[in-house]
Amino acid sequence: MAARTRRPERRQEPLSRERIVSAAVELLDTVGEGGLTFRALAERLATGPGAIYWHVTGKTELLAAAAEAVVGPAIAGADTDATPQEAIRALALGVFDAIDAHPWVGAQLARTSWQSPMLRVFERVGRQVQALRVPEAAQFTAASALMNYILGVAGQNAVNTRTVQPGTDRTEFLDTVATAWAELDPGQYAFTRDVAGQLREHDDRTEFLAGIDLILTGIAARR
Amino acid sequence: MAARTRRPERRQEPLSRERIVSAAVELLDTVGEGGLTFRALAERLATGPGAIYWHVTGKTELLAAAAEAVVGPAIAGADTDATPQEAIRALALGVFDAIDAHPWVGAQLARTSWQSPMLRVFERVGRQVQALRVPEAAQFTAASALMNYILGVAGQNAVNTRTVQPGTDRTEFLDTVATAWAELDPGQYAFTRDVAGQLREHDDRTEFLAGIDLILTGIAARR
DNA sequence: GACACCTCTGGAACGCTGTTCCAGCGAGTC
DNA sequence: GACTCGCTGGAACAGCGTTCCAGAGGTGTC
């Protein structure tokens, strides 16, 4: 028994939404999307699965909160004294870099439509679209196109990091795919073969920005 | 036993990969993404879950095959005697319409990187990019941007149909979101409020095509 | 001090999933 | 008739998100 001598074995910090969310982010970062389970999370927090549900309604909300925690700060910067184009680029890169640092965020954003934080991105992209003097009737189209492109890249980024074995690095992965492309049937896949080299050597970030610029050029030309 | 008179109670058709995939497509179309389980599929095929695994390696392959079955025919058309822009539009619309008719395909395509059938889309988009006389060094970028945009729309389309309750129709759903947008804080969400009306009245297909055209314009301007 | 509250805990259990296992059926072959 | 082998389908397994609930621990009231 020795009930007298038992130490105050109660957990140092009490459970809280913040502690749960930040533990979830750590788990997602280290073990990946599939690694976030309520049991693993409970173990990390030295509690049981049931306790977590007191602070969080379910996995959906938990993932949304984790994404918010990571993306929120990344898009918080001010876009004063910058051209609209530069502001949009900076915003898009903020999202991109957050996804790059936390691949699971890409899947999460692509899965959850325009709730926060992507609604905030939409708002700020839209304002810059207005600053570009895009006709009112075309503003929704312009901002939507940018959002869809960003979310498309987000999703693909997530897919790629999910596909790659945890052991291999990015260069090796690109090399494998590029080699596979180069060995496709020349009749059926002439173009894909042609650009296999560009796939091998491209930089994701630069390429992402080039796509943004393509759309921005399109928007400017239509003004 | 009356073994003599027993009808050929053996299932009419034997199990086969095609039967399984087409049953999966039916299930996905009627019950949605979450409705495709091996048990439901087995019941529909009047067999057990184990039998399915003889013809299909697992759920991943099954989903890929289902997407291929739906998207494959949609992008099979020939693009002879059409301008490159028209060919790209037609191709993109083929993918869009397939997704529109089978919402789960959007999620599937967005989830599986550029395997078939999206690699075939990439190839054919790329050829038209070459036909547009885009400099070699920019071809990968141009084709990738189009692909990422298409996949972004695909993913968002899937999200929206997943969010909406099976009861309500699209108009009602758009109305709800647009109303919510119109009631946002004017200080923080000025732009979003401004375009709430455009959200309510927009047509997905037209909007999708407008985005494609924006990128095409950007590509042409950079030539 | 005793009692009743009420927030919060965490382990057990539920129903569901994808997947594996394997006894056995039925047609074709020696 | 026996043997083989492609194929079947029901049972079982491990894991998931989620729910349930007995009870611990702190706080306020008499």
> Could you state the CATH homologous superfamily of one domain in chain A?
Tetracycline Repressor, domain 2
Element-level helix/strand string of chain A: HHHHHHHHHHHH
Principal-axes shape call of chain A: flat
- Identify the quaternary structure here: homodimer
> Please, how many helices of chain A?
12
Q: Overall mean pLDDT score of chain A?
A: 91
- Cα distance spanning the termini of chain A: 80 Å
CATH architecture of one domain in chain A: Orthogonal Bundle
GO biological process, one term (chains A, B): negative regulation of DNA-templated transcription
Pfam families (chains A, B): TetR_C_1, TetR_N
GO molecular function (chains A, B): DNA-binding transcription factor activity; transcription cis-regulatory region binding
Protein name (chains A, B): TetR family transcriptional regulator
Report on the structure:
Chains A, B: It comes from Streptomyces yokosukanensis. Chains A, B: It holds the Pfam family TetR_N. Chains A, B: One of its GO terms (molecular function) is DNA-binding transcription factor activity. The structure is a homodimer of 223-residue chains. By secondary structure, chain A is mainly α. Chain A has a domain at 78-222: Tetracycline Repressor, domain 2, CATH 1.10.357. Helix content of chain A is 69%, strand content 0%. Chain A is built from twelve helices and no strands. Chain A is flat. Chain A starts with 16 loop residues before the first helix and ends with a helix. The model of chain A is unreliable at 1-11 (pLDDT under 50). Chains A and B meet through helix 7, helix 8, helix 10 and helix 12 of A and helix 7, helix 8, helix 10 and helix 12 of B. The structure holds a DNA duplex (30 and 30 nucleotides).
